[in-house]
Amino acid sequence: MSDLPSCPSCDSAFTYEDGLMFVCPECAHEWPQQADEADTGSGITDANGNPLADGDSVTVIKDLKVKGSSLVVKVGTKVKNIRLVDGDHDIDCKIDGIGAMKLKSEFVKKS
């Protein structure tokens, strides 16, 4: 038997997957497969496992060399108003004295 969930609208067992959605062929109801992820946000967490969101403030937990220059982002640097993006470096921000940067969430903690 299929391990897909029953339709929440009509309780039909004949649901199927269509991309990122589940579909019921009997009542044509559609719902997202990842309903929990949509409620909790982006799924990006800091070094301690706390969920991050756009507009949060974070603190750098490790000295980070800035690629292409001799600058270093020091431990304890506070970064305000972050923006979460897709990719390897999942935080887009501006750091005072350095400018626009992308950071990895594993090197910051939520403040």
Q: What do the pLDDT scores average to?
A: 88
Helix content: under 10%
Regarding quaternary structure, how should these chains be classified? single chain
Gross morphology is rod-shaped
Distance between the termini: 47 Å
Order of helices and strands: EEEHEEEEEEEE
Low-pLDDT runs of 5+ residues are 36-40
Radius of gyration: 20 Å
For the largest beta sheet, what order do the strands appear in spatially?
A: 1-2-3
Main pleated-sheet profile: 3 strands, antiparallel
Structural class: mainly beta
Strand content: 25-35%
Q: Give the strand tally.
A: 11
> With helices defined by DSSP (H or I, 4 residues minimum), what is the helix count?
1
How would you describe what is shown here?
It comes from Halopseudomonas sabulinigri. Residues 45-110 form the Protein YjdM C-terminal domain. This is Alkylphosphonate utilization operon protein PhnA. With 111 residues, the chain is mainly beta. It has one helix spanning 35-40, and strands at residues 16-18, 21-23, 30-32, 58-60, 64-65, 72-73, 78-79, 83-84, 91-95, 99-103, 108-110. Strands 1-2-3 form a three-stranded antiparallel sheet, with no helix packed on it. β5 and β6 (72-73) form a beta hairpin. The longest helix has 6 residues, at 35-40. The model is unreliable at 36-40 (pLDDT under 50).
